[in-house]
């Protein structure tokens, strides 16, 4: 309540106002608040109680006036607030006093109306002070000469004694407010005068002291005058020497000024060169992003096509795993390009977070699987361990966490020699919801004085590292930036020549819901209508072949245009059901072609999907503004392209019911398959755990034999793989023992 009263008290008050003006504004606020409060809590309820509607109607204009004065003060219209308040109050008194009679005592309000202008108007507004003093006196005399009747023959109401004294008390209180304000102003003025007197006295004392000091100094001057005369000749000689030194110094300063100007000019020139170089770098990175994505599009596209055809080609499970690794590696490369080549984010430090629910254990194991082949190739013992205390499902940025672990793991394998060991560990912090990842290698190690510098851009342990192992020195920089963006950090401990341990701490949130296992896209379950017409506008031959292969796999006919001009012509002639538009093409860009198609009558609703290597958000927004319905970034992910086909094209045969498919797949293992699985389990039992490749081959064969069934051997394959990857021979033997015993 106190804070509210203070706010009302200071409505319209600013720091730039002097104390007198602040006091005048506060008088207006106090009067308006007091009168408004008195009206709302006193007069209006009283008039309603006695049933006097004429008196009640007189309160409404007054209340509106008080609120308007508040508003004018709030908008810094101080003079308008003063004029409105005094003018309205004079007119209100001129109406109320004769209408209700002088017995109510309202005529005494003119004492306030005569005094108030003297306080609320400053010297610049003194003409308004005189005007309102004259108006108040004139209205009072007019009422007096008409015996307070004016144009009313008799009073409308008769007051009781309580009401009359309440009104008089209100007027006395208003005069008290004004008088107290006047007293405060006088006190402030008196304090100023006292302060000025004190300052003046202090200045006088200081002046007396300085006069005494001057007298003492004058005596010293007289005493030293003779000495000055004696040294005058010496000064002449020194002066001549000084002039020579000054001239010499002046020349030196002029020379330094010229050198400084030249340096500033060179700095400005260097700055211009740096800015041009930065612009060139930006253009280079944008072009590189486009050029890298184009071949990557073909790599990912053809690998996905082979994956789709694997059932028809009867590819071994191991080859299918290789295809999965190619696809996953391509996707990781695409994500890496998205983060590294977005120059505006890296230079401005504006990398953004995109949190999602994810299976942490699955992501961790995928990191291991992707790097396992390289470790085996180098004959490195590669093991991992995932702490059971870590939640399986968490919420964080999947892309950045994946890139952090990929960077550190690939580095560890790269810098570790054959016959050594690399460990990938994950455990939970004891007290906080923080995942702690450790990548431990037995590689070349890092010197103690280089432990922090390796996180700087383009830095490595020493120059020989670049010559022996390659790399730009950007990986660890980006890794630490991403970890810190996620609220964590990356630290390193190392002994040169013995290896290094990189520790990543990443806070995580609890997953908002249970994550369902992603169902792979199965295009064989959907049959598109044969009369679907799809126009692909693409100039790259490899991409054309890749798209043609995808269309063939889906049973669709692809109409091809090799540039924007041809694309516009074929679109108008064909009127396709869907247009896939490349953005960068010769003769006419995809954006221009899209605009021309959209401006053609009858093509407002034709869906156009952009296929582009440009991953920058501003380029995507520009494409949507020019009429694109969807935007797919190269390399094209079939799992994203296939839903686009389902969205815009006509389908003859819908996807089968998932429960029916499950029931069809739920076959029972035959006796022959059970015998083969048992033989393979015995081979695993007789194979040393360090022969990882052989054991994994046996596991893959068991998985292939169990595929499409509800057999417990699928879960057993997962247990065996975890034991092999973790290098846990006891766990491997225990799992085999339980399985063979159950058989």
In short:
This protein is 64% helix and 10% strand. The chain is built from 23 helices and 15 strands. The protein is extended.
Keywords:
743 residues; alpha/beta; 5-stranded mixed beta sheet; 5-stranded parallel beta sheet; 23 helices; extended
Tell me about this structure.
- Helix 7 crosses helix 8 (317-340).
- Helix content is 64%, strand content 10%.
- The relative contact order is 0.05.
- The model is unreliable at 465-473, 517-521 and 655-666 (pLDDT under 50).
- Helix 16 links the parallel strand 12 (578-582) and strand 13 (608-612).
- It is α/β, with parallel strands linked by helices and 743 residues long.
- The protein is extended, with a radius of gyration of 45 Å.
- The strands form 4 sheets. Strands 2-4-5-7-6 form a 5-stranded mixed β-sheet. Strands 11-10-12-13-14 form a 5-stranded parallel β-sheet, sandwiched between helices.
- The two termini are 81 Å apart.
